[in-house]
Amino acid sequence: MSGAPRIRLGVAGLGRAFMLMLPTLARDTRVEMVAAADPRPEARARFADDFGARVYDGVEALCADPDLDAVYIASPHGFHVAHVSAAAAAGKHVLVEKPMALTIEDCQAMIAAAREGGVHLLVGHSHSFDAPYLHAREMIRAGDFGAVRMITAVNFTDYLYRPRRPEELDTSQGGGAIFSQAPHQVEVVRLLAGRPARSIRAAATVWDRARGTEGAYNALLDFGEGLSATLTYNGHGHFDTDEFQDWIGEMGTPRDATAYGTARAALRTVSSPEEEAALKERRAYGRGSGAAEARSMPAPPAYNHFGLVIASCERADLRPTPRGVAVYADDERRFEPLPPPDVPRSEVIDELHAAIFQATPPLHDGAWGLATAEICLALLESARTGREVALRHQGTP
After folding, report:
1. CB neighbours of 54 closer than 8 A, spacing ≥ 6?
2. Number of helices (H), then strands (E), in the chain
């Protein structure tokens, strides 16, 4: 990283997505935080103090800033198409949070805006950026274990019982497990499959009426030629698949295995949607920790992950883990370790930096994000109709 040109970055939206990326953006020396836009005065004040940067109350003003190379769109889902279009029209490269959008048409409009603006469009972060999954992909592509024939992805968490704003529990507004969590699994299995998915059959219902949105799903993705992937997600806070990861959590840090049921227990003290939203707001940027805390954190001991994933090839099963890839072959069992990351989620910056300064087409481009959004929408359609849904916008992974 030393000596590499720096991405002069602006941020549109200083909410939860930004907070998850803050350790990356504050610590990666290839990033210079130049400006941000957010409607909350306290968030703008914290950003200006944290980075000595300019702040705006509107995204259009941010995008007009002449000193930016790129804009990270971390605003709520419904604003993505307008904010991506504004950045692209201003000639800024774009990193937009997942899900890219909630309709096919909005995804296509964002792709068109980037094309017309002559800029790169990346979609993420999803866990398909994580180094262990990328390493497993290269192992599959090398062909030493034969073709990949089946992919299994399973994740059990307490997602549904973490503090939420009302819109995060409304599927029509992009809330719930299908839009928030499924993109991670969808993109990991697409990465490992290495070719476009053809159809999906799924089941997803609302189990807890008090939460009002889907917290779990089962899905079967058909990639053709005998390759399929099963996706299981359950966010109802009972079993936890981090038990299969030596209690390394999703963010690559150790968890307390004895802290069972804490999310549900905390939520029982909340008496209204407004109180729950306020509980979440306590952790928001401008009220909770900031860049100083992010910079002082020790380097993560392991990579991010998204539960149990097994890629079954003809002559081996490959299991990405937070520390590397476990190989279960015909005549041996071994582990291929990866050095721990210096900066969490730096793989996102790898891809954005290469796109901007080396003109390297990004893997997670607009077409990639469109394919993921289509699968999430089709998952919901299949769950509601009970039918298999054909996929038409998948491109080539």
Report:
1. 34, 35, 36, 48, 65
2. 13, 15
- Please name which of 56, 131, 124 lies closest in space to residue 95, comparing C-alpha atoms: 124
Q: What angle do CA 76, 80, 86 make, to 5 degrees?
A: 130
Q: How far is the C-alpha of 102 from the C-alpha of 88, rounded, in Å?
A: 19
DSSP 61-78: HHHT-TT-SEEEE-S-GG
Which residues, in sequence order, are bridge partners of residue 185? none
User: How far are the Cα atoms of 135, 303, 304, 323, 343 from residue 339, in angstroms, in the given order?
Assistant: 12, 9, 13, 8, 12
Would the pTM of this model clear 0.85, i.e. be above it?
A: yes
Q: Do 373 and 102 contact (CB within 8 A), yes or no?
A: yes
Q: Please give the torsion angle defined by the CA atoms of residues 100, 346, 253 and 11, in that order, rounded to the nearest 10 degrees.
A: -50
Would you state the structure tokens that stand for residue 353, as one six-digit string?
């930096």
d(CA 304, CA 23): 13
Amino acid at 183: P
Q: Which residues are 122's β-sheet partners?
A: 95, 365
Burial classification of residue 277, based on how many CB atoms lie within 10 Å of its CB (0-12 exposed, 13-18 middle, 19 or more buried): middle
Pairing state of beta strands 93-96 and 70-73?
A: parallel
The CA–CA distances, whole Å, from 356 to 33, 42, 122, 332, 351 equal 16, 31, 11, 42, 9
Listed residue (328, 307, 329, 173) closest to 249, CA to CA = 307
| Tens place of pLDDT per residue across the chain (397 aa) | 557 899 999 999 999 899 999 999 999 999 999 999 999 999 999 999 999 999 999 999 999 999 999 999 999 999 999 999 999 999 999 999 999 999 999 999 999 999 999 999 999 999 999 999 999 999 999 999 999 999 999 999 999 999 999 999 999 999 999 999 999 999 999 999 999 999 999 999 999 999 999 999 999 999 999 999 999 999 999 999 999 999 999 999 999 999 999 999 999 999 999 999 999 988 889 987 899 999 998 989 999 999 999 999 999 999 999 999 999 999 999 999 999 999 999 999 999 999 999 999 999 999 999 999 999 999 999 999 999 999 999 986 6
What secondary structure letter does DSSP report for 303?
-
